Amino acid sequence: MALRVEIDNLQKATEKLIKRLFTEGVVDAIADVLDENVIGFSPSGHYYSRGSWEVKRFLQGEYERLAPCNISKIRSRQFVREGQLSIESHVIMTSLQQRKLLLLNITTMYRMVPDGFMINGVNMALDYDRERTYKVLTERAVSDLDFLASYDGATGLLNREAFCSRAADMMTDYPDKSFDILRINIERFKVINEVFGEQQGDKLLNYIAGFLKSIDLELCLSARLYADNFVMCFEAVEGEAERLIYTMQIVANSFEISHHTVLTFGLYHVDDKSIPVKTMIERANMALNQAKGNHVTPYFVYDNKMRDQMLLEQQIVNEFDAALEHGGFKLFLQPKYDLETEQIMGSEALVRWIKADGSYVLPSLFIPVLEKNGSVYAVDRFIWEETCKCLRRWIDAGKNVKPVSVNVSRIDLYDPELVNVLVGLTAKYKIPKYLLELEITESAYTDDPRMIMGVTEKLQSEGFLILMDDFGSGYSSLNMLKDIHIDILKLDMEFLRSTDQTGRGGNILSAMVQMARSLNIHTIAEGVETRDQANFLKSIGCNWVQGYFFSQPITVEEFEKLI
């Protein structure tokens, strides 16, 4: 099909084709007017392609290499050389993918056919002559340079640097007004990219960005910080933040994808305009981190407690390596007792962090921090090896050695070398594997049940016993027992703390013990604090207990006196 235009309109028609190619990727529109023997020259000039199919593929490749593109201006002229009608176009364009401003010279050659014109040659060349480029640049092209410096290429929102600068200016220009900083995050965005593809992920980013651009507030800025993280600064009007959060949740849920898109938010009420905007963003991020994974409320508001918590966490991270290297971490043991004989039948290995001044860092403080940054594996491995050393020493001393259970965190379970490490430690110290029991929390199984089941089955095949810790604290306990082979259930004593033994909690605990017995699974209850609790557990058939009523965690030396 020929290009049905008059000679006077050929220049405009050519510019239209160029725009459609580089901004929309519409190659078919050009393919329809390519001569069968058309020749295409590459921008580098190193090769050429011949034939309509080859040139079409060449043009498609150029679009994909540069897209998305923003064309600032096209300047064209029409000329005839050696009987060949040609349109020479200077295209000033921004390649958002390459983050470059380009001057692309395109010469489109035509031959006349009975009903119009066909393209029989396309020659592209990138102009690398800086002086010539600046002569051709228009004011719009210069503004494109500013665009690249100030805006995120993928979404068209402000970037971090421009947001910080403009937000600071806005707060300075309106000293009598209050402002909020709102951080926005797409939960499990990595999963969306992996399952549905990065193209779908990019569409979601632009979907959210499109809404942020549409917000019609007098004083409001929006930016994409990185990946799936956005930020807003707006005037703090009562109820405005909640309205925006609510609306954005609806927007996210309306995105057409077979995945429940969840947004989480962190809000910082600016109470000190003198601090850098990047610090304000960090404070909003602290609140955002509190909201991640929280299914009760989608947002948290920053307060000074969060700052204190952040400083404490940073202190823990800073002191961790030195403490581990210089003996700051110690192995403690909490005895486990047989309810029938009230004799020690084993123990649980626990870690304690003792500082140089003799003070303790509570496990409830440092364990979550180390889990967050991945360092908990080093602590776990330290405890595993210290436990193996103790078991070896007790065996050599001829003591009546009972099993010691060690904790295996969910981070450990994702280590492909976990089985080899544990097998290696028992081999190194010549420990029977049944003496080193492995405690895995119930919640760990909910992340990736198939993978965790595979790991536990390998460990059991090697001879290790598996304990499910905190059984009953999750929402899928019974379903997991159907699929996962567990040797020992460790019961969550919250059932007894919230009610007396004759209440619903006691009935549930009794049912758990009976169910475990029918499955040939032993039970142990931790956190036993009173004689009444111990007697009740014995009456329902629970096998073993541990807790402060019998013994708190003690040093290895103190434990050795008991065995």
From TrEMBL:
Residues 313-563 form the EAL domain. Residues 177-304 form the GGDEF domain. PROSITE patterns: EAL, GGDEF. GO terms for molecular function: cyclic-guanylate-specific phosphodiesterase activity. It comes from the Bacteria. Pfam families: EAL (PF00563), GGDEF (PF00990). This is Diguanylate cyclase (GGDEF) domain-containing protein. It comes from Anaerovibrio lipolyticus DSM 3074. The lineage of its organism: Bacteria, Bacillati, Bacillota, Negativicutes, Selenomonadales.
